[in-house]
Amino acid sequence: MPAVSIHKKQSLTISLSLIITSCHFPVTIMKLFAVFVLVILFLQALAVVEASTMINNASNNLANRDGASDVLDIHKKHHPQKINCSQACNRRCKESSRKNMCHRACRTCCKRCHCVPPGTYGNKQACPCYASLRTHGNRPKCP
């Protein structure tokens, strides 16, 4: 009779060891999953810190800038400075041999570009828009 109980103990021990061995694989997966979740949480926390730093830097930059200059920049971009085209074109065309044609072309260019180069000839680098306008024959439009 004692032999039977020893045999049952051994089979019980063997079956328990098989269960523990077969359960070892899922435990390893659980540990890897836990490590994966921790890494993801760490990366998320790092991203939140980075985003808050960027937001703080942006707000500091905006606080340091003058709000009035922003309004002026927008105004200049969308509403170019008004100039007296007649007066500027009179100055530009005063030495032209064909004054009427010069005035007509100059006023058209001035109204489009809101700029007339200084002097009576050349200096078109001062007004790139003025210099870039062309006729249908691809000749410079503005005097």
From TrEMBL:
Picking any one GO biological process from the record gives: gibberellic acid mediated signaling pathway
Q: Looking at the Swiss-Prot or TrEMBL record, what is one Pfam family this protein matches?
A: GASA
Q: Record keywords: Transport included?
A: no
Q: Where is the secretion signal located? A: none
Q: Which UniProt keywords apply?
A: Gibberellin signaling pathway
What's the domain of life for this entry? Answer: Eukaryota
Coiled-coil parts of chain: none
Q: Does the keyword Transferase apply?
A: no
Q: Hey, which family's this protein in?
A: Belongs to the GASA family.
Q: What is this protein called?
A: Gibberellin-regulated protein 9
Q: Which organism is it from?
A: Citrus clementina (Clementine)
State the taxonomy lineage: Eukaryota, Viridiplantae, Streptophyta, Embryophyta, Tracheophyta
